[in-house]
Amino acid sequence: MTRKVCLVTGGGRGIGAAVAREMHAQGYALALMSPSESCETLAVELGGVARRGVAQSAEDIAGIVDLAMRTYGRIDAVLNHTGHPPKGDLLEITDENWDLANEMIVKSVVRMARLVTPVMEAQGGGSIVNVTTYAAFEPSPWFPASCVYRAGVSSFTKLYADRYGPQNIRMNCLMPGFTDSLDVGKFADLPALRRIARAEEQAKAAAFLLTDASSYITGQSLRVDGGLTRHV
Questions:
Q1: E strand intervals along 57-193
Q2: CA neighbours closer than 13 Å in the CB half-sphere of residue 87
């Protein structure tokens, strides 16, 4: 198959679904995963394939990679996307929920990389984008476990970019701000642009990083937050 293939986790709704639509518009075949049937519905609409699963399951990650390879024989782009783990006051979060956050956010990225890197090496390159959060570098008490582990994903991304850049495999992070895929309208006045993002805006930024439009960018964390964060 010569048509390029994009694999999207969390690809049933919100930012993940918007990225799937954008990559489809750019000519990519799709393999989608999400916890519910929403990924299957979207895959039918866009002519792709889907498998239900959650990011914290090694079996589910392996399952969607296997489905993509059996269907298409290649994987050119991967979007790692998952929701926030359980929230709470900093010291009220249980050990079990800290462990769940690690499984959802960091280990899902590592497991996916283990599986798709040999595929991309054999193909001569590829691109992986990890959806994190605007708060990875300016931690927020609203979702502490998410902030801690998504900052870890940025660190892993730097290490991966150094290790696999010579094989023409790129890894970057997308750091979205408040987006209309969630009920966050009350935060609309916080960004410099004085509005929340549309999921389609996040998708265009993700597609930029996933495709050859960003062929000389790797190891970076791109803030798409409407000017919400202030650090230089």
A1: 77-80, 126-131, 169-176
A2: 7
Task: Count CB-CB contacts under 10 A for residue 51.
Answer: 18
For residue 141, give both structure tokens: 């008490």
Q: What is the pLDDT of residues 139-191, one digit of tens each?
A: 999 999 999 999 999 999 999 999 999 999 999 999 999 999 777 878 999 99
Q: What's at 181, amino acid-wise?
A: S
CA-based diameter of the chain, in Å?
51
Q: Render 34-57 in DSSP notation, one character per residue.
A: ESSTHHHHHHHHHT-EEEE--TT-
Burial class (CB in 10 A: 0-12, 13-18, 19+), 137: middle
User: What does the buried/exposed string (b/e) look like for 201-216 if buried means 16 or more CB atoms within 10 Å of the residue's CB?
Assistant: bbbebbbbbbbeebee
Contact between 123 and 74 (Cβ < 8 Å): yes
pTM reported for the whole predicted model: 0.97
Strands (E) in the chain, as ranges, are 5-9, 29-34, 49-52, 77-80, 126-131, 169-176, 221-224
127 exposure class (CB count in 10 Å sphere: 0-12, 13-18, 19+) = buried
Residue type, 31: A
Q: Rounded distance, CA 184 to CA 75, Å?
A: 34
120-145 pLDDT, tens digit per residue, is 999 999 999 999 999 999 999 999 99
Taking alpha carbons only, the member of 59, 65, 76 closest to residue 9 is 65
Q: At what angle do helices 144-164 and 108-123 cross, to 10 degrees?
A: 20
CA distance 168 to 166: 5
